[in-house]
Amino acid sequence: MRVLVVEDEQLLADAVATGLRREAMAVDVVYDGAAAQERIDVNDYDVVVLDRDLPLVHGDDVCRRIVELGLPTRVLMLTASGDVSDRVEGLEIGADDYLPKPFAFSELTARVRALGRRTTVALPPVLERSGIKLDPNRREVFRDGREIQLAPKEFAVLEVLMRSEGTVVSAEQLLEKAWDENTDPFTNVVRVTVMTLRRKLGEPPVIVTVPGSGYRI
Protein backbone atom coordinates (compact mmCIF):
# COMPACT_ATOMS: atom_id res chain seq x y z
CA MET A 1 0.00 0.00 0.00
CA ARG A 2 1.28 3.47 -0.87
CA VAL A 3 0.40 6.36 1.43
CA LEU A 4 0.97 10.12 1.31
CA VAL A 5 1.18 11.86 4.69
CA VAL A 6 0.39 15.60 4.51
CA GLU A 7 0.97 17.36 7.83
CA ASP A 8 2.60 20.72 8.59
CA GLU A 9 3.74 19.63 12.07
CA GLN A 10 6.94 17.99 10.85
CA LEU A 11 7.65 15.94 13.96
CA LEU A 12 4.15 14.47 13.85
CA ALA A 13 4.32 13.89 10.10
CA ASP A 14 7.66 12.10 10.36
CA ALA A 15 6.49 10.04 13.33
CA VAL A 16 3.35 8.92 11.47
CA ALA A 17 5.40 8.07 8.38
CA THR A 18 7.91 6.06 10.39
CA GLY A 19 5.14 4.12 12.11
CA LEU A 20 3.35 3.32 8.86
CA ARG A 21 6.60 2.18 7.25
CA ARG A 22 7.04 -0.25 10.13
CA GLU A 23 3.63 -1.59 9.13
CA ALA A 24 5.07 -2.43 5.68
CA MET A 25 3.57 0.56 3.87
CA ALA A 26 5.34 2.77 1.35
CA VAL A 27 5.06 6.33 2.63
CA ASP A 28 5.84 9.75 1.16
CA VAL A 29 5.72 12.86 3.36
CA VAL A 30 5.06 16.53 2.59
CA TYR A 31 4.47 19.47 4.92
CA ASP A 32 2.16 21.80 2.97
CA GLY A 33 -0.81 21.67 0.63
CA ALA A 34 1.03 22.86 -2.47
CA ALA A 35 3.56 20.02 -2.21
CA ALA A 36 0.69 17.59 -1.65
CA GLN A 37 -0.98 18.63 -4.89
CA GLU A 38 2.31 18.17 -6.77
CA ARG A 39 2.69 14.62 -5.42
CA ILE A 40 -0.92 13.72 -6.18
CA ASP A 41 -0.48 14.86 -9.77
CA VAL A 42 2.50 12.53 -10.41
CA ASN A 43 2.10 9.55 -8.04
CA ASP A 44 -0.66 7.02 -7.43
CA TYR A 45 -1.59 6.73 -3.76
CA ASP A 46 -3.97 4.31 -2.11
CA VAL A 47 -4.52 6.59 0.88
CA VAL A 48 -3.73 10.22 1.71
CA VAL A 49 -3.50 11.10 5.41
CA LEU A 50 -4.40 14.77 5.14
CA ASP A 51 -4.20 17.47 7.79
CA ARG A 52 -6.98 19.96 7.23
CA ASP A 53 -5.20 23.17 8.32
CA LEU A 54 -2.24 23.35 5.94
CA PRO A 55 -0.07 26.25 4.76
CA LEU A 56 0.05 27.42 1.11
CA VAL A 57 -2.94 25.33 0.01
CA HIS A 58 -5.66 24.40 2.52
CA GLY A 59 -6.33 20.72 3.13
CA ASP A 60 -9.90 21.17 1.93
CA ASP A 61 -8.60 22.25 -1.48
CA VAL A 62 -6.24 19.28 -1.65
CA CYS A 63 -9.19 17.00 -0.93
CA ARG A 64 -11.28 18.71 -3.60
CA ARG A 65 -8.41 18.24 -6.07
CA ILE A 66 -8.41 14.48 -5.47
CA VAL A 67 -12.17 14.35 -6.01
CA GLU A 68 -12.02 16.50 -9.16
CA LEU A 69 -9.36 14.25 -10.69
CA GLY A 70 -11.57 11.22 -10.10
CA LEU A 71 -8.78 9.34 -8.36
CA PRO A 72 -9.45 6.09 -6.48
CA THR A 73 -7.30 7.51 -3.67
CA ARG A 74 -8.99 7.50 -0.26
CA VAL A 75 -8.62 10.46 2.09
CA LEU A 76 -8.26 10.25 5.87
CA MET A 77 -8.62 13.83 7.10
CA LEU A 78 -6.96 14.96 10.33
CA THR A 79 -7.84 18.04 12.35
CA ALA A 80 -7.28 19.52 15.77
CA SER A 81 -10.99 20.28 15.95
CA GLY A 82 -13.32 17.60 17.22
CA ASP A 83 -16.52 19.47 16.46
CA VAL A 84 -19.17 17.39 14.71
CA SER A 85 -19.82 20.23 12.26
CA ASP A 86 -16.17 20.16 11.15
CA ARG A 87 -16.29 16.41 10.63
CA VAL A 88 -19.46 16.68 8.59
CA GLU A 89 -17.96 19.47 6.48
CA GLY A 90 -14.82 17.45 5.82
CA LEU A 91 -16.82 14.42 4.71
CA GLU A 92 -19.00 16.55 2.47
CA ILE A 93 -15.91 17.94 0.75
CA GLY A 94 -14.94 14.41 -0.22
CA ALA A 95 -12.95 12.91 2.65
CA ASP A 96 -13.59 9.21 3.23
CA ASP A 97 -12.84 9.22 6.95
CA TYR A 98 -12.10 11.71 9.70
CA LEU A 99 -9.80 11.48 12.73
CA PRO A 100 -9.46 14.27 15.31
CA LYS A 101 -6.14 15.01 17.01
CA PRO A 102 -4.76 13.73 19.28
CA PHE A 103 -5.24 10.18 18.07
CA ALA A 104 -3.96 6.72 18.93
CA PHE A 105 -1.53 5.47 16.31
CA SER A 106 -3.14 2.03 16.35
CA GLU A 107 -6.45 3.62 15.34
CA LEU A 108 -4.78 5.63 12.58
CA THR A 109 -3.16 2.48 11.20
CA ALA A 110 -6.43 0.54 11.31
CA ARG A 111 -8.26 3.33 9.48
CA VAL A 112 -5.55 3.61 6.82
CA ARG A 113 -5.68 -0.14 6.19
CA ALA A 114 -9.48 -0.09 6.02
CA LEU A 115 -9.40 2.74 3.47
CA GLY A 116 -6.68 1.00 1.48
CA ARG A 117 -8.91 -2.05 1.07
CA ARG A 118 -11.54 0.19 -0.52
CA THR A 119 -9.25 1.26 -3.41
CA THR A 120 -9.40 -2.23 -4.92
CA VAL A 121 -11.90 -5.04 -5.34
CA ALA A 122 -13.04 -6.11 -1.87
CA LEU A 123 -10.98 -8.99 -0.51
CA PRO A 124 -11.17 -10.89 2.79
CA PRO A 125 -9.20 -9.34 5.70
CA VAL A 126 -6.93 -12.41 5.70
CA LEU A 127 -5.50 -13.30 2.29
CA GLU A 128 -4.95 -16.96 1.34
CA ARG A 129 -3.36 -18.40 -1.80
CA SER A 130 -1.14 -21.38 -2.65
CA GLY A 131 -0.88 -22.47 0.98
CA ILE A 132 0.08 -18.98 2.15
CA LYS A 133 -2.02 -17.09 4.67
CA LEU A 134 -1.30 -13.38 5.12
CA ASP A 135 -2.94 -11.22 7.77
CA PRO A 136 -2.20 -7.51 7.04
CA ASN A 137 -3.62 -6.30 10.36
CA ARG A 138 -1.54 -8.62 12.53
CA ARG A 139 1.37 -8.58 10.06
CA GLU A 140 1.53 -12.37 10.19
CA VAL A 141 2.39 -14.81 7.42
CA PHE A 142 1.97 -18.58 7.50
CA ARG A 143 2.74 -21.23 4.92
CA ASP A 144 1.05 -24.55 5.48
CA GLY A 145 0.65 -23.66 9.15
CA ARG A 146 4.28 -22.59 9.63
CA GLU A 147 4.81 -18.97 10.66
CA ILE A 148 7.29 -17.04 8.53
CA GLN A 149 9.10 -13.94 9.76
CA LEU A 150 9.39 -11.27 7.08
CA ALA A 151 11.04 -7.85 6.95
CA PRO A 152 8.64 -4.93 6.24
CA LYS A 153 9.50 -4.69 2.53
CA GLU A 154 9.26 -8.45 2.07
CA PHE A 155 5.83 -8.37 3.70
CA ALA A 156 4.77 -5.44 1.50
CA VAL A 157 5.83 -7.22 -1.70
CA LEU A 158 4.07 -10.41 -0.67
CA GLU A 159 0.89 -8.48 0.17
CA VAL A 160 0.87 -6.79 -3.25
CA LEU A 161 1.33 -10.16 -4.98
CA MET A 162 -1.38 -11.80 -2.87
CA ARG A 163 -3.84 -8.98 -3.59
CA SER A 164 -3.24 -9.34 -7.33
CA GLU A 165 -4.93 -12.79 -7.15
CA GLY A 166 -2.74 -14.54 -9.68
CA THR A 167 -2.30 -11.69 -12.16
CA VAL A 168 1.20 -10.57 -13.09
CA VAL A 169 2.66 -7.62 -11.18
CA SER A 170 5.55 -5.81 -12.84
CA ALA A 171 8.71 -4.80 -11.01
CA GLU A 172 7.72 -1.16 -11.60
CA GLN A 173 4.34 -1.75 -9.91
CA LEU A 174 6.01 -3.44 -6.95
CA LEU A 175 8.45 -0.55 -6.65
CA GLU A 176 5.57 1.92 -6.70
CA LYS A 177 3.46 0.08 -4.13
CA ALA A 178 6.13 -1.10 -1.68
CA TRP A 179 8.75 1.68 -1.77
CA ASP A 180 8.54 5.46 -1.45
CA GLU A 181 9.52 8.12 -3.97
CA ASN A 182 13.10 8.34 -2.69
CA THR A 183 13.94 4.90 -4.07
CA ASP A 184 16.11 4.84 -7.20
CA PRO A 185 13.87 3.51 -10.02
CA PHE A 186 16.90 1.78 -11.57
CA THR A 187 17.80 -0.14 -8.44
CA ASN A 188 17.62 -3.94 -8.28
CA VAL A 189 15.93 -3.83 -4.87
CA VAL A 190 12.76 -5.51 -6.19
CA ARG A 191 14.65 -8.47 -7.63
CA VAL A 192 16.70 -8.87 -4.44
CA THR A 193 13.62 -8.65 -2.21
CA VAL A 194 11.71 -11.20 -4.29
CA MET A 195 14.71 -13.53 -4.16
CA THR A 196 14.90 -13.27 -0.36
CA LEU A 197 11.14 -13.68 -0.06
CA ARG A 198 11.24 -16.86 -2.15
CA ARG A 199 13.92 -18.30 0.11
CA LYS A 200 11.94 -17.55 3.27
CA LEU A 201 8.70 -18.97 1.87
CA GLY A 202 10.48 -22.25 1.14
CA GLU A 203 9.83 -25.10 -1.28
CA PRO A 204 8.14 -25.57 -3.62
CA PRO A 205 8.46 -21.99 -4.94
CA VAL A 206 5.17 -20.08 -5.10
CA ILE A 207 6.39 -16.81 -6.64
CA VAL A 208 6.66 -17.25 -10.39
CA THR A 209 8.80 -15.00 -12.56
CA VAL A 210 7.13 -14.14 -15.86
CA PRO A 211 10.00 -13.16 -18.19
CA GLY A 212 9.71 -9.61 -19.42
CA SER A 213 6.54 -8.99 -17.40
CA GLY A 214 7.00 -9.43 -13.65
CA TYR A 215 5.90 -11.80 -10.90
CA ARG A 216 2.79 -13.62 -9.74
CA ILE A 217 1.63 -16.12 -7.13
From TrEMBL:
<feature type="domain" description="Response regulatory">
    <location>
        <begin position="2"/>
        <end position="116"/>
    </location>
</feature>
<keyword id="KW-0597">Phosphoprotein</keyword>
<dbReference type="InterPro" id="IPR001789">
    <property type="entry name" value="Sig_transdc_resp-reg_receiver"/>
</dbReference>
<dbReference type="Pfam" id="PF00486">
    <property type="entry name" value="Trans_reg_C"/>
</dbReference>
<keyword id="KW-0238">DNA-binding</keyword>
<protein>
    <submittedName>
        <fullName>Response regulator transcription factor</fullName>
    </submittedName>
</protein>
<dbReference type="InterPro" id="IPR001867">
    <property type="entry name" value="OmpR/PhoB-type_DNA-bd"/>
</dbReference>
<feature type="DNA-binding region" description="OmpR/PhoB-type">
    <location>
        <begin position="124"/>
        <end position="217"/>
    </location>
</feature>
<feature type="domain" description="OmpR/PhoB-type">
    <location>
        <begin position="124"/>
        <end position="217"/>
    </location>
</feature>
<feature type="modified residue" description="4-aspartylphosphate">
    <location>
        <position position="51"/>
    </location>
</feature>
<dbReference type="InterPro" id="IPR039420">
    <property type="entry name" value="WalR-like"/>
</dbReference>
<dbReference type="InterPro" id="IPR011006">
    <property type="entry name" value="CheY-like_superfamily"/>
</dbReference>
<dbReference type="Pfam" id="PF00072">
    <property type="entry name" value="Response_reg"/>
</dbReference>
<dbReference type="InterPro" id="IPR036388">
    <property type="entry name" value="WH-like_DNA-bd_sf"/>
</dbReference>
